[in-house]
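Fold it.
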Amino acid sequence: MKCKATNVPPAGEVDIPALREKYRQQREIRVRPEGQKQYVRPAEEFSESYEADPHTPVKPRDSIFEDLDVAVLGGGWSGLLAGVQLKKAGVANVRNIDHAGDFGGVWYWNRYPGIQCDNDAYCYLPMLEEMGFMPSKKFSDGFEIYDYIRSIADRFGLYEKALFHTLVSGMKWDESIKRWRVKTNRGDEIRARFVVMANGLLNIPKLPGIPGIHEFKGKMFHTARWDYEFTGGSYRSPELSKLADKRVAIIGTGATAIQAVPYLGRFAKQLYVLQRTPSTVDERRNTPTDPEWVKTLKPGWQKERQANFQRATIDTFAPGDQDLICDIWTEINRNLVAEFEAGGWPTSPEEFMARRDVMDYRVMERLRNRVDTIVKDKGTAAALKPWYRFLCKRPCSNDDFYTTFNRPNVKLIDVSATQGVECMTEKGFVANGQEYEIDCMIFASGFEVTSDLDRRWGIDVIEGRDGLSIYKNWSDGYETLHGMMSRGFPNQFFVGFYQGGFNATTTETFNRQGQHIAYIIKEALSRGVKSVEPRQDAQDAWVKHVRETAFDISQFQRECTPSYFNNEGEAQVDSEGGQKLRWYLGESYGPGWDAFQKLMQEWRDKGELEGLILGKD
């Protein structure tokens, strides 16, 4: 069935100048001068609750002292796929090291009620054809994703050497042995020839730094450490029956809360939803996988679908393209194609972007109008409307979130005027000058996604050659070759959003980075190379190329409401007091994903490891 354009208001009915001013005003209300410092690290303030693993008992083991070919720091998608690509390349002496009790990363820690992926699962779950697996529905449940991750780890033998419940505390390059000395909280010292930093984006929870948070006598937990002993139910059957006599509050209305709030509203005696900035919440349409559709799929279908998703969200559709994804992520380009086919395609990039900007405002107006059709109380509906550009915050979809506010036991408390909860007390919290008594406070306050690197990685010391700190080296912006290696840090590789080509399907980004890294490590080992790192001139040329070809989105970020996409709107300064060059979700390669992959393939095909210093001594 062909995916249809959505019914957005006509361009003539949308007052863009007025909306632009409204967006500005709403942003100014929410920007806090302390930026990221409004959050605290659980490791520092709540170590007992957040260092522990509620899912898997920690088993005692002896400390490990060994020489290792590759240490992969992480067991989520990025670490898993790096391990898979290394195994495919014939590199066998590999350990995945992770703080969790199993592979899974975000899908290991997050087991809150209602958890699902919010991207098309047929794109998001990698290697579907190779694994012979098909998601049960468009947006897979968290437990289905977790089980699938474990099946991949099992298929490629990654469990054999994996170290779980192991937190890396520091790592230093030892020039005398041409290895990284990796130390952990289990007393290990691993001398790794190569290290792959696959720490992930969603592994360290952050908590709002609310005054009096330690005074509260009730129950508190982060959604990434959901306590089913307290709420009742279980990960796979979230019947939260123990909340029937409980007054519960949840801070946040982002992607996590959108999924959890309907369950809390259904079971809690009283639910308070504390919101600073509303999300866009569209219809979900989470349909089961049609077996007849599966029968029509031809080899290569997943790559084709991922490419379609890339064009629909980051690049642009071309004449004749059909939207295979058909959800909130692809709506703007889908609507544009329908209008272009009816009235003619733009003749210049400038015309296309102007039309796209207009469609952005029209789609957001549709999403605000949707709130009024569902939420009965007019004041609540008004507070739930998002006033910002599309993609200023992560788009969400859920069929039960808005209807939850029609329940008599659910109250939305808008805290935008005070930029958050004012304080916590022994009995509850204070918002807008009023104290609310509760039994439980739940934090849906997100993760260290785009905060400073040391907060994201959670490793105290990372020192390369001559004691150079990676944190200091990158303090004024990333300096890499291809986004995966950095001068002064031999044999160290990075998986994630740093400085290269990024795919709309994050797991495809990680997979292809893992492939490139595995190639370099395989070649180094087979050639007897003890150390590899970028030449300074090659790295400088790459950084210059990336920045000269980049699309400048800084103005868009500055206009956005505070979120993890723009590091809470925090103004950054460099080490000399000037404006810091800061890329919150990495410096993306301007010519695009396909161009980046072509460049990397050509680089590998030459077989010269061009731009790298190959140390054999």
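The chain has 22 helices and 23 strands.
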